[in-house]
């Protein structure tokens, strides 16, 4: 137990720390549905990883990166609205994953753990993936912070000022793909978007600056992980969903308090 609890907490906190800043941009840019699309695509990555015999987190990252790139390229054609493209990609990749899964008659996949997370089974290798991927993501995000913030506030003005908007948008989508891949073990493919959005939405009421909101989102995410794991161990509930319920509870509690940000 002494070795088990630190591993679980380190894994959960590692995801929450990077989900906070990314989630803030997702809230600002109204990209929640994009996160759902990538999380749906994650199932196809899990199946392909099983077939090819590679690490599921690596295969999920590859598929999510591919979907993000496909979305950016389709957006440039301007033939369909973004929400339509997201709907097509989300349901197509999820269905492809389920169809491919039906052909794996000799391979057993614990689908529930991938869909809803299995944070209690985190091992040392998983921690390397989580912290390695998230530290890489945070480093890139810090480097992109100012141009990404400028493009978020006013994309056309940022483009006039010389910000490479297309490249910045693509890089941001790829960062979300990496986080979804490494966070899969914590809250699962279908719930990771909640950990990205809910703490950021909670932090928005209290933050006075973009940086403050990103920091508070990480704090609320860590609180949600801690409370969710405590509830899971206390009442024997599913760990991933318990973390999301804890995040939602913090949001409800925060909504009942006076706002300090004016948003």
UniProtKB/TrEMBL annotation:
It is a multi-pass membrane protein. Its main location: membrane. One of its GO terms (biological process) is response to zinc ion. The keyword Protease does not apply. The chain crosses the membrane at residues 6-28, 40-73, 85-107, 128-148, 168-201, 213-233, 239-257. GO terms for cellular component: ATP-binding cassette (ABC) transporter complex. It is found in: Cell inner membrane; Cell membrane. Keywords: Cell inner membrane, Cell membrane, Ion transport, Membrane, Transmembrane, Transmembrane helix, Transport, Zinc, Zinc transport. InterPro entries: ABC_BtuC-like, ABC_TroCD. The keyword Membrane applies. PANTHER family: ABC-TRANSPORTER METAL-BINDING PROTEIN, HIGH-AFFINITY ZINC UPTAKE SYSTEM MEMBRANE PROTEIN ZNUB. Belongs to the ABC-3 integral membrane protein family. Involved in the high-affinity zinc uptake transport system. This is High-affinity zinc uptake system membrane protein ZnuB. It comes from Candidatus Competibacter denitrificans Run_A_D11.
């Amino acid at each position: 137990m002494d070795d088990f609890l630190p591993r679980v907490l380190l894994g959960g906190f590692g995801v929450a720390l990077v989900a906070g800043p990314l989630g803030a941009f997702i809230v600002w840019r109204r990209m929640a549905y994009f996160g759902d699309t990538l999380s749906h695509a994650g199932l196809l990555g899990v199946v392909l990883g099983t077939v090819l015999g590679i690490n599921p987190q690596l295969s999920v990252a590859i598929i999510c990166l591919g979907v993000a790139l496909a979305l950016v390229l389709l957006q440039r054609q301007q033939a369909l609205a973004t929400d339509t493209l997201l709907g097509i990609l989300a349901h197509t990749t999820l269905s492809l994953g389920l169809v491919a899964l039906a052909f794996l008659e000799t391979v057993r996949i614990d689908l529930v753990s991938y869909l809803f997370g299995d944070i209690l089974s985190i091992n040392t290798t998983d921690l390397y993936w989580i912290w390695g991927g998230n530290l890489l993501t945070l480093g890139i995000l810090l480097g992109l912070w100012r141009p990404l913030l400028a493009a978020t506030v006013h994309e056309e003005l940022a483009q006039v000022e010389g910000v490479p908007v297309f490249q910045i948008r693509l890089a941001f989508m790829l960062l979300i793909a990496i986080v979804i891949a490494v966070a899969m073990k914590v809250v699962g493919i279908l719930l990771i978007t909640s950990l990205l959005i809910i703490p950021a939405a909670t932090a928005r009421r209290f933050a006075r600056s973009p940086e403050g909101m990103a920091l508070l989102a990480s704090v609320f995410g860590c609180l949600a992980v801690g409370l969710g794991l405590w509830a899971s161990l206390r009442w024997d509930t599913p760990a991933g969903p318990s973390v999301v319920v804890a995040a939602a509870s913090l949001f409800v509690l925060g909504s009942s308090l006076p706002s300090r940000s004016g948003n």
